[in-house]
Amino acid sequence: MLIGGGRIEGKDYLNMALVKGEMVRRCGSFFMWELRLLGGQMLPNITSSGSSSSCWRKLGDHVRFMETNIDKTDLRRKFKEERMQEVRERQRLEREEYKARKIPTPEDILVRKIELAKKKVAQTRLLLKKFDVPIPEVETKPMAHHAPEILTPEERHFWKKMGQKYKNYVPVGRRGIYGGTIQNMHLHWKKHETVRVDCHMFSDEQIKVMAKDLAHLSGGIVVDIRKDKVVVLYRGSKYKQPKELIPKNLLDKRKALKKSLLEQSMNSVLKHIGDMEKKRRQMQLEMALEVENSSTVSGIALGDSTP
Fold first, then answer.
1. pLDDT confidence band for 48 (50 / 70 / 90)
2. What is the average pLDDT across 256-282?
3. Hey, how many other C-beta atoms are within 10 angstroms of the C-beta on 214?
4. Going by C-beta distance under 8 Å and a sequence separation of 6 or more, which residues neighbour residue 126?
5. Are 182 and 218 in contact (CB under 8 A)?
6. CA distances from residue 4 to 46, 116, 179 in whole angstroms, order as listed
7. What are the C-alpha distances in Å from 207 to residues 182, 210, 211, 227?
8. Which of 143, 146, 162, 144 is CA-nearest to residue 154?
9. How far apart are CA 8 and CA 16, in angstroms?
10. Is 41 helix (H, G, I), strand (E, B) or coil?
11. CA–CA dist 240, 207 (Å, integer)
């Protein structure tokens, strides 16, 4: 039995942690909560290592007082009432805040959506900057620039026919031009003079830009850009396979895919922003027409009322 002063029957001054555990077991969490309120600064002495016997006796007196004079149901009721009062106060503040809030108009909601979309585009552009590969110093020299040989009309026509005859091709998908594309072109040029690059996922303007990039990165010559979105490139009469088939200023396969996904997301958000701005302008025109019509109707009513 727990007695004041930290004693249990037959034991003198047990470990403080054991006494505290016995109190919690017998009296419950609500009893300990009320003990903290009534005990003041004496409860921390339970966990202190250097507690005096007088502190233990005072704590024991509080325990005996609470066991005799306090009902546990009253403590539970008091604790529950305080919690419910806190909940009611919080709900009241939330209702007042909701009533004081301005009800947004459809135009305000649209403006907010446009602002959030523009923030998303700015964040995507910051992420795209991580995929910008710096150009090495060797490729910035004048001798490293692409200087293709000049073909006569007969030679160009011949290699155009040969490109249509050969079936070897390199696909360019959603990743665009990356290191693996140039590597595959050099591997095809090892046995064939021409190679076809399939760019069926891109528009005609993008294919023209991609043809120039392919010629610059691989060192080949653009012979033909067909209507079925195929670019034919000739390797050149003095072609020698380079030691490094992948240029250093291009991304690998994984990074190119991440970059393409970010670009696709940014383009879709930009398109959505354009649609929302168009809808906003239409709403403003409709509101202006409504104001104009209401003013004309009020003017007619005033004219009719005058004698």
1. very low
2. 93
3. 23
4. none
5. yes
6. 13, 65, 82
7. 16, 5, 6, 11
8. 162
9. 12
10. helix
11. 26
> Alpha helices of 40-71 — where are they, by DSSP H?
53-69
Structure-block tokens of residue 256: 């190119």
The DSSP secondary-structure symbol of 202 reads S
Packed helices 179-189 and 204-218: angle between N→C axes, nearest 10 degrees: 70
CA angle (176, 187, 237) in 5-degree steps: 105
Task: Answer whether residue 149 shows pLDDT above 60.
Answer: yes
What does each C-alpha distance from 192 to 88, 121, 212, 275 come to in angstroms? 82, 44, 21, 48
DSSP 8-state symbol, 191? T
Residue 233: CB atoms within 10 A of its CB come to 26
Strands 169-171 and 7-8: unpaired
Residue 212's H or E segment, with its range, is helix 204-218
Say if residues 19 and 46 touch (Cβ distance below 8 Å).
yes
pLDDT score of 269: 94
State phi, psi for 7 to the nearest 5 degrees: -110, 145
Mean pLDDT of 155-168: 89
CA pair distance 35, 63, nearest whole angstrom: 8
- 230-234 and 194-198 as β-strands: parallel, antiparallel, unpaired? antiparallel
Mean pLDDT, residues 154-169 taken together: 89
Band the pLDDT of 289: cuts 50, 70, 90: confident
Cβ count near 223 (within 10 Å): 24
Q: Report which secondary-structure segment, H or E, holds 97.
A: helix 72-100
The mean pLDDT value for 252-257 works out to: 91
Single-letter code of the amino acid located at 115: E
Contact at 8 Å (CB) between 305 and 153? Answer: no
Q: What is the pLDDT of residue 306?
A: 54
